[in-house]
Amino acid sequence: MMLLRSLRADFLKIRRKGIWFLVFLAPIGLVAMQGLNFGLRFDYLSKRYEDDLWGGLIYNIEQFIPMALFLGCTLISSLVANVEHQMSSWKQLLALPVSRSAVFLAKFTLCVLVLAVSCLLLPILTAGLGLLLGFEPALPVQELLSMGFIPYLAAWPLLALQLWLSLTFRNQALPVSIGVAAAILSPFTLDLSVWLPLNWATLAMMDTSPVAYLLGGVSLSLFLLMISLLHFNRKDVD
Amino acid sequence: MSELIIQTKGLTKKYRGRPAVDQLNLEISKGDIYGFLGPNGAGKTTTIRMLLGLIQPTSGSISIFGRELKRDKLNILRRIGSLVEYPSYYGHLSAIDNLEAIRRILDVPKPRIDEVLEIVSLTKEAKRPVKGYSLGMKQRLGIAASLLGNPELLILDEPTNGLDPSGIHEMRELIKSMPQQYGITVLVSSHLLGEVEQMAHKVGIIREGRMVFQDTIDNLRLQAQHDIELVVSEPDSAIWIARDLGQTGTLQGGIMTFPGMKDPQVAHLVKRLVENGHAIYRVEQKKKSLEDIFMQVIGEGSL
Fold this sequence. Notes:
Radius of gyration of chain B: 25 Å
Number of helices of chain A: 12
Strand content of chain B: 25-35%
Structural class of chain A: mainly alpha
Oligomer: heterodimer
CATH architecture of one domain in chain B: 3-Layer(aba) Sandwich
CATH superfamily of one domain in chain B: P-loop containing nucleotide triphosphate hydrolases
């Protein structure tokens, strides 16, 4: 299948580009921060979350997940696109017998998979930290996995948008600025509206049921993906 | 005439209403090395990008291997290798990994990588990151990449651009060997005639988006106008005799030069000069070099 062949080529191209470094750095950073937090004021926090120590740890990490996700989507998209922009490899790549849809969808799949690695590492490292802090060994598996993947799915629209912008503009200043601005502003837009897609990652974790936000996130991202695909298929390659 | 590999009809690309390529009819036969010539900005690269499906023509049709490019793009591209302008490569990867990234998409057997590296003599350097390569090596890597899929047609856009003389020579020998050794048809573009004349059988010359000449190099030579030079005993009066006959020539250093004079006119002029008592020392045809002809074509738009 063309998509798979493209994807295998893409995995080769992102070697030594700092992408894997970022993928590991983000969850390690988030968990290390809480390691410090809990390590320094363990007595206070363990009293405060007496009833549910695991829940307390997860809650504290979750505060930072949306912003980290938005930054991740932005930087990974830009790095993935830059592999082709840097030495104008588009003309070589798109003159190969591979459909443009396959090329585009392979890049999206690549971003999704690479970010999923981060999202899987986060619960694993969190569990490790909890055990290290001496929490009870029965792991709250469902909560841990929810923390990793629910906000991630709700953040897909931004990933779709960022990838489109990054692939379209040779100069990455614009897409990266937009993405970083979205990440920095995201904590302050929560009160605006539940309809604002930027809020969905947080709301999916905090609201009683995440289903609506997940459906919204996935369908909006598919819609954005379709539009970008139409554009990518027609555009002239210079 | 053998079968046509590339045929375009009325191929046109407009940018904001201004045609970059205008009503181009390209005809390239199997086994040819076709030199695609024109000054910078004449529309060569735009044409080549259209042939590779990188940009959409505004109007006109492209048929490659007898099939419509629009309808059968992927099957056609599978049989083409290309190198467009400056080389594309992934600088952080070695030559082998660069080729592997392309091989994974083409889905050809792995040993093919060693074969193409051998063809462009990069085997020894294949494990170094490409960003440390010289331009000539990068260009050779580009050729290797274009050969990876065992193409029947090679489309090379300015493959010798920026190379030093020995690099140019190497590239030329490599291109010349393609039809002989591998049966590959080659389209090679350049803004220098001298570079193409030593390898191409047929040339297409494009100027401001329009084809102004398309035929063999030999016919290009034949069609050019040649100057006639005369050296006589009294050139000052001879030139007036010529003018009476309707031949305007120039006189410099005792040599009269008449541009584009036909044989009967030469005979007539010589006869008249002899009748008037001039001694004729020399009548010479001054052949124009191919470069002169090329400059004439791209300067005036016709022969």
